[in-house]
Structure formats: structure tokens, C-alpha cells
Amino acid sequence: MNPLLVTPLLELAGKAFDRVFPDPEQAAKAKAEFAMQAAKMEEADINSFRDFMLAYEGEGDKVHPYIQILRGSVRPILTYSLAGTFVYGYANPTAIDPDAMTMLFQLNLLSLGFWFGERALRNLGLNLGKK
Fold it and tell me: Domains in the chain: how many in total?
């Protein structure tokens, strides 16, 4: 079950149980049982998705070494490409459109934020919209 749906569903079910069961103790017991069943269903969904991903993607240590190298190289190559393109555009202002430079700057922030974290970027003096 989607966690965003569980809380409203529990609230709605709680109101329904209050109307169906005149005794507050019975209603509380029904709510608790319903919440427990919803949690079990949610856990089963998460486990099912995890099993699917492991079967689909393969466990990291069981795939071919070339695939491991390929998987591990995607983010560094993307980061070097973004940074290199930005440096090239900064060194040659007429080579890249200013709107594209703005986009490249934002993509580099995302990439560097992945590698070093938001806190490191903030320590560099970059205002990321949070205080």
C-alpha cells in the first residue's frame, strides 16, 4: 500500500468504525485490527517490490564484473561531462547560450549535491533556498 494513502484510509476507516460500532471499545479494537492489517499489507507490498527489483536488476555482487564497472561509472562520467561542459562554456562565453549555462549550473549543483551533500555546497557559500 502507498504510505500516502494509508493515513487517510485509516482516518476514513476510523470514522466508519465509530458509526458501525456503538461501543467505543469495540470501535477502538476494530481500528487497531484494521491498522495492523494495513501495516501488514504495506510491508508485504514493500517486500514484494524489493524482491522484484532484486530479480529484475540482479544482486550487485552476482552480476558480471563488466556490468558492475558500467553501473559504477555512470554517475562519475555524467559528473565529469557536466562539469567539463560548464567550464568550457564559462571559458568561452560565446560558445554556449546563457540559458544553457544556467541549466548547466543547476545540473552541476544537483550532481555535486549528490556527491558531497547539500551541507558541503552551503559551506561553499551557495544559497540553495534553505536557511
Answer: 2
For residues 17 and 37, give the distance between their C-alpha atoms in angstroms, rounded to a whole number: 15
**What is the pTM for the complete model shown?**
0.48
The whole-angstrom separation of Cα 82 and Cα 72 is 17
What's the grid cell of residue 67?
Answer: 556490468
Q: Could you report the per-residue pLDDT of 76-112, keeping only the tens digit for each?
A: 899 899 999 999 999 999 999 999 999 999 999 888 8
Burial 108-125 (b: 16+ CB within 10 A, else e): beebbbeeeeeeebeeee
- 131 lies in a domain? no
Residue 37 makes CB contacts below 8 A (sequence gap 6+) with none
- How many residues are given for the chain? 131
Q: Which three cell numbers stand for residue 96?
A: 554556449
Q: Tell me, yes or no, whether 130 lies in a domain.
A: no
Does one domain contain both 88 and 47? Answer: no
